[in-house]
Amino acid sequence: MPVKRATEPSASGGAGPVPVDRRVPEQARGRRLDSWLASLGEYGTRSQIAAAIERGEITVDSAPAKASRKLRGGESVELRRPEAPVPSSDIEPEEIALDILHADDDLIVVNKAAGMVVHPATGNRRGTLVNAVLHHFPPSPASQWPGGAERAGIVHRLDKETSGVIVVARTVEAHEALSRQFRRRTIRKVYLALVRGDVKAGGVIDEPIGRHPKDRKRMSTVSRSSRTATTEFEPLERFGPATLLEVRPHTGRTHQIRVHLAARGWPVVADAVYGVPSSRAREALRRRWGEAARVLEAMPRHALHAHALTFEHPRSGKELTVKAELPDDMGVITERLRVDSRKRID
Description:
Largest sheet: 9 strands, mixed
Distance between the termini: 49 Å
Radius of gyration: 21 Å
Shape: globular
Number of strands: 15
Number of helices: 8
Order of helices and strands: EHHEEEEEHEHEEEEEEHHHEEH
């Protein structure tokens, strides 16, 4: 089993959230929302559906809902997901190098490379983490991946350009146990983010997040149907025009860290959705910071890395912490900023 860092991820980006609108039939009256959706067989297991509800990807009559909501019949249930999943029969294992941080009979933990998409989807069937996992960990004839081959046991997601720690369940029991920990927010997540601006002190951002009122592909702290979101942050190193932060999200909303930091005026460096400065702003930054401003412009993708994940092992019950150190691209940029900062001080 190769245990090496992926070199050239070959995944293309998705087309953004695709809404699916389902009308609740009268015969579903009295059923729980998560149970009814699971019975349709189109949207994953009950645990996966509950997790999607918690992330705000499923709404009822355009409003946030709970997995335990009792249906009355006639409601409009809207589901948002990156793209329609590719049928299991169309998903092929691919020999893509993976940086495997931990593996046992119950789960796998991978250091996902920036640029790699997690799930196959229509128009994006190859080069994903799922394709790689299916190659390195082929299931035995008597077993199946939780959620089918199109999910390959993946419990949570990272954005395409976000690197770092992601956990994959190898059994239904492990998938249920890990999904439950994510729903209950007992899993501790630590990210490293390089942001624009001088963040002098740590703090907590407690602002609800929902779909942007005008651009449905973006998230926003100003939304008609937002959900609670909390992010803790602490500066690790200040460079003047940028700061390296340790970030601990306490909830798991879509793009949460990127949205919260941008709302405070500290967008993640090279974030094409929430934080690219205008040409006029770039010129002003170059005049003020010189080489440091140009260093920030050299970052090839948004500078966000899932550094550590701490959770209870589904079989042993023991606490397990898995870490992935700062990737090369972020490491090079921070070192160049560090050198420039020393020169300015001298």
